[in-house]
Amino acid sequence: MNLIKIKTFFIVFISFISISTFAQKGTRVGYIDMNIILKNIDEYNKASTLLDKNIEKWKKEIELKKIQLNQYEEQLNTERILLTPELINDRELEIKDFASEIINLQEKRFGPKGDMIIQRSKLIQPVQDQVLSVIKQIAEEKKYDFIFDRSSSLTMLYSAKIYDISELVIKRINRQQRIQNRKDQIEKLKNKTSSSKN
Known about the structure:
Mean pLDDT: 81
Number of helices: 7
Shape: elongated
């Protein structure tokens, strides 16, 4: 009986020590606002502008096709009295095919595997990957346990500005961009000097 009491006391004592040690560590939490970060990155803004231009172009293309479809339908309705049933049937099939082309074009441009999704991943995904990489570096350096994105669907009822690391992320990304720009300039100068020697 005494042995059971000693074992129980020892287990409770160990548990108490480990809980108090863990509780003293504290959890470090930071947050970012991805929208603010992305708005401050030139590469993202250029990619976003290019994507928006393409989307507008595709919307106009589809709108023109819809106008053309309406014209075909109106023309058929005005000429219906003069046409034979076979010709009416042929025209209706042509109009139906043209309407299917429009639906296929919409799917090609804006569908789940469409041009918009493909271009977004090509243009914007590399920038987002860069941001996530910098966030991971900062989290490891500053020993954050969690970093939340304030702009996502996660509900953040209160956040103290001291834990906002968005500016730090922007500074790091801009520094990386300046370093890359310098490397590109040096490479251009090397290419110029080597081509002028030849």
